[in-house]
TrEMBL record:
GO terms for biological process: protein targeting to membrane. The chain crosses the membrane at residues 37-60, 72-92, 104-120, 194-224, 244-266. This is Palmitoyltransferase. It comes from Neodiprion lecontei (Redheaded pine sawfly). It catalyses: L-cysteinyl-[protein] + hexadecanoyl-CoA = S-hexadecanoyl-L-cysteinyl-[protein] + CoA. It is a multi-pass membrane protein. Belongs to the DHHC palmitoyltransferase family. It is found in: Golgi apparatus, trans-Golgi network membrane. Its EC number is 2.3.1.225.
């Protein structure tokens, strides 16, 4: 058994319906451990936020990218959302700095984001099945581009995804964070997920930071955090602060992705077509670490 097979060796419930592979279990432990490590001092927070993307990069570079498909990023996503939600509801809300209606806006956007993410995955699967059923046109038939991997003719504007092992109509890319392809069948749900998630992350971060830090009035009723020097005196408050920073970073990344898709729609193309149009570089996994980090964390060109 080589290292890759050992890495992939499943663990879980014997005879159970589902088995989790090692790569999917890592985030369940890593995200809470890193959160507590980051909450110790300001220096720990800075070190954790700088080193975590690099660690994930090396894990991806050395192991994950050799797997046909990994649930590592999906599990990281789920663990983070659950943890952020728990910290917010158990620690931030009892501080009584937040109005009930503010909490409701936050909860509705979280539920909306999760609902749209679920639909994105469901529609991706059913979309793939529909495409497979309606386009089983054997070699030699006319119409559509020939996919050499599926060995059948794919509908126009369909591209093959090696992870989903099928051709996906109007494919954008394979989203690692949801572990499914984004394409014509689920783009609207995916964009809904990005919109709700951006609101939940950024608004949740703002509510958290203005609760644990000294706030100041920015415009009208909008508060921004001012002095956060006291947060490390109590572990639970430090944990709120760390979750607020994490939430803000995640929110900005999601917002950037949402703006990217709005721009693609504006110019009338898909991420996949644009990557092909840019010719060369885009899809390859080279040695440029910064570029690869972008690919890993922004779901592009994979
Ligand atoms: Zn194909
Ligand atoms: Zn895919």
């Amino acid at each position: 058994m080589n290292i890759l097979e050992r890495f992939r060796a499943p663990c879980g419930w014997r005879g159970g319906a589902k088995q989790l592979s090692v790569d999917a279990v890592i985030p369940l432990i890593a995200v809470p451990v890193l959160s507590f490590a980051a909450a110790q001092t300001l220096l720990c927070t800075i070190i954790t936020f700088v080193t975590t993307p690099i660690l994930v990069y090396y894990l991806h570079h050395n192991f994950l990218r050799f797997l046909l498909r990994t649930k590592f990023f999906l599990m990281w996503n789920i663990t983070s959302v659950v943890l952020l939600m728990l910290v917010f509801e158990i620690t931030v809300v009892p501080l009584l700095e937040i109005l009930p209606e503010e909490n409701w806006v936050f909860v509705i956007s979280v539920v909306g984001g999760i609902g749209c993410a679920y639909q994105t995955r469901v529609k991706a699967d059913s979309g793939n099945q529909d495409a497979a059923l309606s386009h089983v046109i054997e070699l030699g038939d006319t119409g559509g581009e020939l996919c050499t991997t599926c060995r059948r003719r794919a509908p126009p504007l369909a591209y093959h995804c090696r992870m989903c092992q099928t051709c996906v109509l109007r494919r954008e890319y394979h989203c690692k964070w949801l572990d499914c392809c984004v394409g014509g069948s689920n783009l609207r749900w995916y964009m809904g997920c990005l919109l709700f998630s951006a609101i939940a992350f950024i608004y949740g971060s703002n509510l958290t930071m203005t609760s644990v830090c000294h706030p100041f009035i920015f415009i009208g009723t909008i508060l921004l955090p001012d002095d956060c020097s006291d947060v490390y005196h109590q572990l639970d408050i430090a944990l709120c602060f760390v979750s607020g920073v994490y939430s803000l970073l995640a929110g900005l990344a999601v917002l950037r992705c949402l703006l990217y898709h709005l721009w693609l729609i504006w110019i009338g193309t898909t991420a996949n077509e644009r990557r092909l149009a840019l010719a060369g570089g885009g899809g390859s996994y080279g040695h440029d670490m910064l570029k690869n980090l972008g690919h890993i964390f922004c779901c592009k060109a994979c």
